[in-house]
Design a protein that fits this description.
The complex is a heterodimer of chains A (199) and B (436). Chain A is mainly alpha-helical. Chain A has helices spanning 2-13, 17-39, 42-58, 69-87, 106-110, 113-131, 138-147, 151-158, 162-187. Chain A is globular. In chain B, 26% of the residues lie in helices and 39% in strands. In chain B, the strands form four sheets. Chain B has a 17-stranded mixed β-sheet that branches. The chains are: A mainly alpha (199), B alpha+beta (436).
Chain lengths: 199, 436
């Protein structure tokens, strides 16, 4: 993968835009998921992903080690996303701002208010569970669960070893399981773990 | 049968289809016989499914390729830098074929003549190699020692005895003898105390590793996380006082103030004041327990810094920073003294390693000064010199040989306005004349 990256970067520098298209194919999932991790909106994340690829292309000559294309474009994506948040006046409290409010999409609403509300509620609780994770785990969890990236793909994009990615996802999943499992019982099996409301 | 802990550490990778064949078989065999692990697997599966399901509506399901390619500008051609043009102008390759054929023969003749001349002009020539600058950085000072304490610098294999007020550098490994104790003051207002029989490595002022023994740390807040690597896992800290004790397979972490995060196997603990966990190298853990941290740390509170140690360090550090600024990264020291006499230097050779990469090399300013800092020679090396294939050294011939200078400082200062690539593997040698 790494020598393939170096080859593609070399071709791009020679003006081969097809080679850059191949890099987009390889990294679009990771770049999009990273943008989403910052802004939490599908449309905005897609814009940021495109903008990040353009920035990468323009500054490709400054990439010192073509084998590190993954961590390098990850850095560009984070910077682009942070700038987007600044421009759009969104609050940016720390380096790890997961998105926190969610409106009901039209297609959700068409399925009836109950389904839509359930979906929004489920989404909010999943995000809260991710938010409760240590900061270092969150982007990796989003890469895995939003885009279903393999450990190797995550490792290639983040620069962490595959072994470390596996460890992080194992520890994160244990915490996520503890946070989420009651909700599943509550949601799909109808066995509420919540005490009945008192009058 | 594999232990439940080992199985628990592989559950998520199993669900994610990231386990190797044999690991998968072991896990499946275990799950078939162990109802608890089977239940854990089901719970992980349910949680994973929920995560995928909740995030699915926002997944990127189409390719961005065309949208990106439609916006790409034309890739800039690399600019031919002026230095390269000048270099080529001065070294034209307008050889005729006939002249070119004579080159090998002429080179041999020239080489023989030069060898003869050099042999007689320089009865005993030798190259003396410059000492490369140290790469490690000073990050603290030894604030207290008692008993026998040894330090092995990161770039040497030699074990040295540590004394009070000696500097702590990145990569230093400290070993304390039985009944010995040590205190380090690190940059960022962190204090580290180590008990007897301790092996402690200072990776930098915010990262330590401990392989045996015990340490107590009071970590100053500087916005960066403080990390301690132990045989059983990673401890992450942000402004706090805590201790780590490593005894064989067991690592014990106790918090006295603030909050500490401990990662070990599949466990993740966040410890508060007066809490303790015990983690083992096989990934198992016990705790958190409530303890009286001050009592647990009684040994550490008996260690106190020598007076005014912070002031000594602050002053020394500022002196060193100034020095670093002056000497730069590529400063080389040449010792010209042999048998008590300073030898005459007439050529300074700059050598580098030619590594594959992109971009054009920048020009370098070479300055040679004597032990008092007075400039004795300066030159500018064109960036294009370094791009010539097969060439990995350049001789700076001095107009006047340098005599009677016991020490020479050679500085190589990159001029980054002329190129975006710096040299790697730099070496500096001086050609000296040894007169009988």
């Amino acid at each position: 993968m790494q020598s393939e990256n170096a080859r593609l970067v070399h071709l791009c520098l020679g003006g081969d835009t097809g080679a850059f298209g191949r890099l987009v194919d390889l990294y679009q999932g990771a770049v999009y998921a990273t943008a989403y991790y910052y802004v939490g909106r599908h449309g905005a994340a897609e814009d940021i992903a495109q903008e990040s690829f353009l920035q990468a292309y323009k500054s490709l000559r400054r990439l010192k080690d073509p084998n590190s294309f993954g961590p390098w474009i990850r850095e560009i994506t984070s910077r682009t996303a942070v700038n987007w948040l600044r421009r759009n006046g969104s609050r940016l409290q720390s380096e790890a701002p997961l998105p926190f409010e969610r409106t009901i999409y039209l297609e959700d609403a068409r399925q009836g208010p109950d389904t839509a509300l359930e979906r929004v509620e489920r989404f909010d609780r999943v995000l809260k569970a991710i938010e409760a994770l240590p900061e270092r785990y969150r982007p990796i969890v989003v890469l895995r669960y939003l885009q279903e990236l393999s450990y190797k793909e995550i490792s290639d994009f983040t620069g962490e070893s595959v072994h470390e990615v596996r460890g992080i996802l194992q520890r994160a999943s244990r915490q996520l399981r503890d946070e989420l499992i009651d909700m599943k019982n509550h949601g799909s099996e109808g066995q509420s773990q919540w005490p009945p409301a008192q009058k | 049968m594999a232990s439940c802990t080992k199985i628990a550490n592989g559950i998520q990778a199993y669900l994610d289809k990231e386990l190797g064949h044999s690991e998968r078989l072991i896990l499946e065999e275990h799950i078939a016989q162990c109802p608890e692990c089977a239940e854990a697997l089901r719970a992980h599966h349910t949680a994973s499914a929920l995560l995928f399901e909740a995030l699915a509506p926002d997944r990127l399901n189409h390719s961005l390729r065309q949208a990106v390619l439609d916006q790409l500008p034309v890739m800039d051609k690399p600019l031919d830098d002026i230095d390269a043009i000048n270099w080529r102008a001065k070294h034209p390759h307008g050889w005729t074929e006939r002249t070119a054929r004579l080159v090998p023969a002429a080179a041999i003749v020239l080489l023989v003549v030069l060898t003869i001349i050099l042999r007689f002009s320089y009865p005993e020539g030798a190259w003396t190699t410059a000492v490369a600058p140290e790469r490690s950085e000073t990050v603290g000072i030894v604030a207290f020692v008692s008993g026998s304490i040894y330090r092995t610098p990161g770039d040497q294999a030699q074990r040295l005895t540590t004394t009070l007020r000696s500097f702590v550098r990145t990569g230093d490994l400290f070993e304390t003898g039985s009944d010995s104790s040590l205190m380090l003051s690190l940059r960022g207002e962190s204090t580290i105390k180590a008990g007897g029989d301790t092996l402690l490595k200072v990776n930098d002022n915010r990262r330590l590793s401990i392989d045996a023994g015990r340490l107590w740390a009071d970590v100053g807040k500087d916005g960066n996380l403080f990390k301690v690597v132990t045989p059983a896992g990673l401890i992450t800290v942000l402004g706090t006082a805590f201790s780590v004790e490593v005894a064989n397979d067991l690592t014990t972490v106790t918090v006295e103030r603030g909050e500490v995060q401990v990662e070990c196997g599949e466990h993740l603990f966040r410890l508060g004041v007066n809490q303790q966990v015990r983690v083992y190298v096989d990934g198992t853990a016990e705790g958190p327990f409530e303890v009286e941290a001050v009592k647990v740390h009684a040994w550490a509170h008996e260690i106190n810094a020598a007076p005014q140690i912070q002031e000594v360090f602050a002053e020394a550090a500022s002196r060193q920073e100034n020095m670093t600024e002056l000497s730069g990264k590529a400063a080389f020291v040449i010792d010209t003294v042999r048998d008590g006499r300073a030898l005459q230097v007439d050529v300074i050779r700059i050598a580098w390693s030619n590594e594959p990469g992109f971009g054009s090399y920048c020009a370098y300013e070479v300055s040679v000064s004597d032990g008092r800092g007075d400039l004795v020679h300066s030159a500018r090396l064109n960036g294009a010199v370094f791009s010539e294939p097969g060439i990995t050294s350049y001789d700076v011939v001095l107009k006047e040989p340098i005599r009677n200078k016991r020490t020479l400082y050679v500085r190589l200062i990159p001029d980054l306005s002329t190129g975006d690539r710096a040299l790697s593997g730099l070496e500096v040698k001086a050609r000296v004349t040894i007169r009988p």
